Amino acid sequence: MLSPSLYTNPLHHHTEIDGLFKSSWIFVGLKFELSGLSHQGVRVGNTNLLLQCDSQGKPRAYLNVCSHRHAQLCEPGKHTGVVRCPYHGWVYDREGVPVGIPQKQAFPQVVANPTAHRLAEFACEAVGQFIFVRKSSDGPGLQSYLGNQYDFLKRASQGMASVQDEFRKDVAANWKVVIENSLEGYHVPNVHSTTLMQADGMGREAEAPQFFLQDPLHSYLEHAADADWVKRFDRMANKIGQWPWRFEHYTHHFIFPNLTVTSFMGYSFHIQQFEPTAVDVTTVQSRTVGVDFSNATAAGSKMMEHIHADGHAFTRKVFDEDAGICKRVQAGVEQAIKPTLLAQGLEDRVAHFQRAYRSQNMLTQ
Ligand code: FES
Ligand SMILES: [Fe+2]
Q1: Which atom of ligand 1 lies closest to the CA of 70?
Q2: Is the pTM of the predicted complex or chain greater than 0.85?
Q3: Ligand positioned closest to the Cα atom of 87
């Protein structure tokens, strides 16, 4: 088990930022969010990045620092238009090369060789819609890093079209507390007694979820959907139509170290990204992404809209319940003197995460 100080020591937090958050592939966003002439400011560990697609449509991650006198090029979040420095107005192209320089005769060295003055760049790869960045200059490619998760993300991306609901919130706990909380259902009866426990088919004790721990860093679970729920969808099929990847279970995937992707039956995907803002603050970006339906009637689309809207309200409520308990866990961890205990068969994915963490992190304590 990981010792409590690994969740509370600010020096150790910096070790993580310079260690595993540098060497791992970190999820940073979705490809369709970068479509058209747009770019995004994102943060990976303590580095501000600028994300945009190049002229070939490939996502690229640049250091968010102007080559002229180091102004930050864009604020975090989404921006339309070209990258233009707010200080003296240098304009960069899709490949990060300065192509528009006011009074350019004053910079003969840049005019002679603009590509030598392009923005610094980090490894950036995508699978389907999912974009990842690795700050270390060497390491495994994305496909080998993701293992079995590569095909899952590729398949889940089919028909992904738009973000239906999105929020960004701070949780007052270490990122590992928040991740560990997402990896077990043991807390559900206590923490989510009025939400998840009341939801159709969620309170079933009989059919336990199945854990998949084959990937050394990542894990997932599948929980068979309630048969009545599946029948309900079957009855609606001639109205709501079909979607690209339909399955009959709830699935929860954790991709080390900062991404979870969950879905019920594949008609939408809930994507959460966890950022280690401070030793005791985790910023969570939550997106619900819809997929394209075919052969839907107008009435069927309306029905799905209602299902989605209920889902969004539910997701926010469950999120707040988890945020509340994570804050209390962090308060306890700050005082703790012994390692934790883990339930066999219930908290196996937490144990798996801790093994992954230990394998990736140079433990000094
Ligand atoms: S610092 Fe960016 S144009 Fe001067
Ligand atoms: Fe929870």
Answers
A1: 1
A2: yes
A3: 1
